[in-house]
Amino acid sequence: MKRLFAILFWVNLTWAYPLISFNGEWYGTTGHFGPYSVFHSPQNLAGKYNPSFVLMLPYLHTGFNNNLISLDFYNRLAPMDTITDEFKQDILEKIGESFEVSQYSSVMPFGLSIGPIGIASRVVEGAKVNVPKDLFRIALYGVQVNNSYDFSNLSAEAISYVQNTLGFGIKERIGNKKVYFGLSGSYILGLGYAKITSRTGRVEVSDTTIVVKDTVDFMYSVPAFVFRLDNFEPKDLTSFAGYGYSVTFGTAVELTPRFTLGLTAENLLSNIRWNSDSSFTGIAAINSTEFNLYDLYSADSIKEIFTDTLERNAGSFNTKLPLILRLSGRYDFYRAPFRFYFDLEQGFRNTALSSTKPRLSLAMELNTFLPILLGATFGGGQRPSFSLGTGFQLPFMFINAGISNQGGFVSSAEGLSATVTAGLRIPIVQRLKGTIVDSTTGTPLIAKVTVEGEDGKVKSVTAKEDGTFNVKVPWGWTKVSIHAENYTSKDTVFFIDKKEEVKATFYLKPLVGELVVTVTDFVTGLPKAYVQVIVFDETGRADTLFDRFSWQSLEKIFRRSLFN
After folding, report:
1. In 10 A of CB 207, how many CB atoms?
2. Whether 270 and 387 share a structural domain
3. Does 477 share its domain with 340?
4. Are 236 and 209 in contact (CB under 8 A)?
5. Quick one: which of 53, 293, 309, 556 has the fewest CB in 10 Å?
6. Interatomic CA distance for residues 363 and 28, integer angstroms
7. Are residues 299 and 448 in the same domain?
8. What's the pLDDT tens digit per position in 124-175?
9. Cβ burial 172-190 (10 Å sphere, 16+ → b, else e)
10. CATH code at position 193
C-alpha cells in the first residue's frame, strides 16, 4: 500500500506543475515559428514567416480544465449549510457519465533556430482522470440500501517527460507553388508514467450486506528517488524512469502568397521504454472481497476485509506517444494588419495527451506594435474555450502573454490556461535592388526612388553614381516610382514576398532627344533644300529646327534638340 501511495503522490506532484505556460497551441501550427516549430510543425522552419535567427527564452504553456467546478459553482456552494437536492441534481446532470479532469503543460526554457534548422528542449506533462458518476452519487446521497454502484468506467493516465528535439525544413518549388517539408526527431527522457489499464468495480447494497467486486490494474514507472526522498542526492536527477524517441513530419504549401495550408503528423513514429532501472516498475492490483456490514465492528484489522496485492514486474514495458494529425492554415489580409489561423487536430487514441474527438481552433491576430490575439477552440472531448492574448513586439524582440477560459468566461469558466513567451529574433526583410539607366545610351543615371507599400507608407532613396540602389520594401504589392531630371518618370508595381530579394533594371526615356527629318517634293519625291521646319512642343512653344541645307544632299536630315 505504501508503494501505491507513493505512486499517487508522484502523479499528483506532476499535476501540480507550476502554472506558467504558453497558450499559443490554439492559434494553429502554421502560426508557430522559430525553435518551437520542431515539436509541432518542422516545415515552418523553411517557411517565409520564420526569421533567420530566433532565440526563445522561454516558451511556457499550461492548462487545467474540468466539467464541473468554476467560480460560479463555488459561489453557489459556499453559502449553503446543507447542499440542497436541487444543487445535487445540477451536479449529476453537469458531469454526465463521469467527472472529467485534465491538465497539460509544455515548458521550453530554451530554444534556438538558425535558418531552416531548429533545436529545442522542453518538459511535457499531461494527465487525464475520469471519475465515475456513481462515486458522486455516494458522496452526495450516501450508500443507499437496495442500490448498486458501478465504477468500471474509472480511468486515469499521467505522463511526464523531457523532449530534446532537432528539426529542419526545406523549400521546393513544384509547378508554380512553394512547397515546404520538415522533419524532426526527439530523444525522450521519461520522468514518470502511470495508467489504469483495467478496472472492474461494482458495489451492491442490500438490507444487511454490501457486495464489493473491485479490481484495479495499472502500470507505472517513476524514478527510484521518489520512494526515498529522505536520502535524495543530486545525482538522482540523472536517473530517468524511461528512454525513447519520437519523429514528426510535416508539409505545407502556399496556395496563394497570402494563404498557407499545412499538414503535420506529430509523433508519426515513437516509443518510450519504461525500464526496470527505476526501482518500482510494474503492474499492481488491489482486490477486495465480499463482507457483511456487521463485520466492520468485529474485524480486528481492515486487512481481514480488504486484500491488497501489489506485484512488481521485473521487466519493462513500452508506451507510444499518441499520433496526432494537424491540418492548419494561415491567411494574411491585404492592406490590413490582420491574420487568420485555423487548426484541425485529430487524435486516434484517448490518452492524457490526445482525444479521438476532433478539435478545431480558430484565431484572429491584430499584428501591430501591441498585438491582440482572439481565439476559440471547439471539440476534443472538452467544452469550448476562448482565448485572449497580447504582447509587445519590436523588430528584434517579442514578449507575449495570454489567457484562455474553458466552458465560459471568467466566473463561469471551468478551465484556465496561461501564457508567457519571450525571445530575440532577426527581423524578416524584403529588398529591392535596382539599376537605373538611360534607355537610349545605356548610361547609368542618378535618380530619386520612391517606394510605397500597401499600407500607404512611403520611403525614398537616391541611386548612386553607377545608377544602383538597394532599399528595404514591405511585404506584398509595392509601387516603385523613379524620377530623374530631363527624363520621363517611371512607375512599376511589384509583388515582393517575405524574405525575397528582387533585382530589376529600370530604363528611363530622355525628354531631350533627336528628331530626324527628311523633306521631299510632294510631286517628284526629290529632296528639297532651304526648307524651314518649325516644331511646337506641348506647351505651345515653337522652335526652328532648320534654316538652310546643302543642295548636294540626297536627303535632308535635321538633327537638333527638340527643346532648349
Report:
1. 7
2. yes
3. no
4. no
5. 309
6. 8
7. no
8. 999 999 999 998 888 888 878 888 888 888 889 999 999 999 999 999 999 9
9. eeeeeebbbbbbbbbebbb
10. 2.40.160.40
In this structure, are residues 451 and 493 in contact, taking their beta carbons and an 8 Å threshold?
A: no
The C-alpha cell that represents 555 in the structure block: 536627303
Cell of 298: 468485529
Cell 527510484, residue located: 224
Return the SS3 of 134. Answer: helix
| Terminal-to-terminal C-alpha distance of the chain | 107
**Does 69 share its domain with 103?**
yes
Instruction: Indicate if 167 and 266 belong to the same structural domain.
Output: yes
- Rounded Cα distance between 293 and 206, Å, is 10
Instruction: For the chain, give the number of residues.
Output: 564
Domain that holds residue 544: 512-564
Name residue 282's beta-bridge partners: 220
Same domain membership, residue 126 and residue 58: yes
Q: How many domains does the chain have?
A: 3
How does DSSP assign 378-437, residue by residue?
EETTEEEEEEEEEEEEETTEEEEEEEEEESSSGGG-SEEEEEEEEEEEPPP-EEEEEEEE
Q: What is the pTM of this model?
A: 0.77
Task: Provide the residue type at 359 as one letter.
Answer: R
Residues 203, 75 share a domain: yes
Of 464, 492, 508, the residue that ends a domain is: 508
Q: Grid coordinates in use for 117?
A: 534548422
Give pLDDT, residue 220. 80
